Amino acid sequence: MVLAADPLLLGPVDLSVILIVLLKVFVAFILLMVSVMLMVWFERKLISDMQNRIGPAVAGPWGILQTLADGIKLFFKEDLVPDSADRRVFKLAPYLSIIPAFLVFAIVPVGGNFRGSDGTTTWFGYRTFVQVSDPPMGILLFLALSSIAVYGVMLAGWSSGSKYPLLGSVRASAQMISYEAALGLSIATVFLTNRTLSTHEIVSGQADWHWNVATTGVVPFLVFVVAGTAELNRPPFDLVEAEQELVGGFHTEYSSIRFALFFLAEFMNVITMSAIAVTLFLGGPDGPILLEQVSWLWPILWFLLKVGVFLFVFVWLRATLPRFRYDQLMDLGWKFLIPLSLGWFLLVAALNVGRDEGWSPVLVVLAGVVGLWIGWALLSGAIRKARNERHDQEFSEQKFSTSREGS
Question: Which of 98, 181, 270, 345 has its CA 20 to 30 A from that of 361?
Fold first, then answer.
């Protein structure tokens, strides 16, 4: 059974190979931790600029050490556990949120020349990928780990022994589960196009500007961005807390380092989701090699630049858009994104079958568009009928209640 396609692990595994793997894990861990620290500073600074404020400006140059100062402060605060909490689950929940974020980053290719090469580099005489691991079911691992993160949110609210964290965790977990369907369908279109689950192979198939954002028709990319934003509980989909409750959501009862772990997991998930989006749709580290003398460096720079653009968009959305109502959030996921991503998946599948069978692509597209329009019309009609029936029922109940009060 092949556990990883990395050429480093295809030969005999000796002490040198183990040390190289440990080095890659260590470098990925440090890179992710430093990226989280910079991301928190970047978000605070960018939002303050958009709102004509100063933002972090005291700790370090331009306030860049403010995140480190906040982490040290939280580490030395008192760790409180409510009397009514389930102590074991209460302490376990933060790790169920942060560990999946670390593991997802392990399957992301952050470098390697994919133009005229197979994306491998040489470390200490061994050929290897510039990623921690490349399992053949890599993207399925991403979907599985994102599902595990839901348990951390739900168990944190349930184990606190308080109703407001429980309400926040129910909202957050329902939101994450709802948008996972649309997220999975948008990724399924990438599987269908590249015919592989390996992240390295997906990036390799996008070399020389054959990026999936274009080959899949843009729609899966847009669905992935919107569903990913909701999956992360980021604004305008941050429904873990509500204005009328005046609490922080599922982590209200947490303090000290356990609260810091939730905070760390939130920003780490933003980075890993951006990295996955770049890997699936924007070619990963693929880009032109401008100087052959440092050809190994350019893919890493292109990858960081693409991820930086995504992070800017996440902060931009947070600073500009108002929060959705919860019914609007659920309507967007179940009544729009899931039908759209499913219909587009079927259209891409029809195009692939038509190409193999020699059908005219124009006729396939026309038939697919007509089918999508008919499906959308039927869905809209069903939603409209259900809304009218619910309105009539509420009106009848209100009229009956008024007549009883009058009598």
Answer: 181
Tokens of 252: 């209200």
φ, ψ (nearest 5 deg) of residue 78: -70, 135
- In angstroms, the CA 255 to CA 236 distance is 25
Concatenating the DSSP letter of every residue in 110-126 gives -----SSS-SEEEETTE
Rounded to an integer, what distance in angstroms lies between the CA atom of residue 100 and that of residue 142? 9
Alpha-carbon span 15 to 343, nearest angstrom = 50
Residues found in the chain: 407
150 closest CA partner among 182, 180, 176, 183? 176
Q: Which residues pair with 122 in a beta bridge?
A: 127
Residue type, 112: G
For every residue of 236-275, DSSP letters joined together read TS-TTS-TTTTS-STTTT--HHHHHHHHHHHHHHHHHHHH
Phi, psi of 127, deg, nearest 5 = -80, 135
- d(CA 205, CA 115) in angstroms, rounded, equals 10
The answer to whether residues 251 and 259 touch, using CB atoms and an 8 Å cutoff, is yes
Helix (H, G, I), strand (E, B) or coil at 323: coil
Selection from 7, 74, 60 nearest residue 255 by Cα: 74
Q: Which two tokens stand for residue 405?
A: 């009060």
Mean pLDDT, contiguous 10-residue spans, the chain (407 residues) = 64 84 90 90 91 85 87 86 88 89 90 80 84 87 86 89 85 85 91 88 88 90 92 83 71 87 89 93 87 82 93 91 84 89 89 83 84 84 83 74 66
Give the chain's count of helices (H) and strands (E).
13, 2
Cα separation, 223 vs 186, in Å, equals 6
End-to-end CA distance of the chain: 77
- Helix/strand/coil for 20: helix
Q: Could you tell me the pTM of the whole model?
A: 0.89
CA dist., res. 281 & res. 197, Å (int): 14
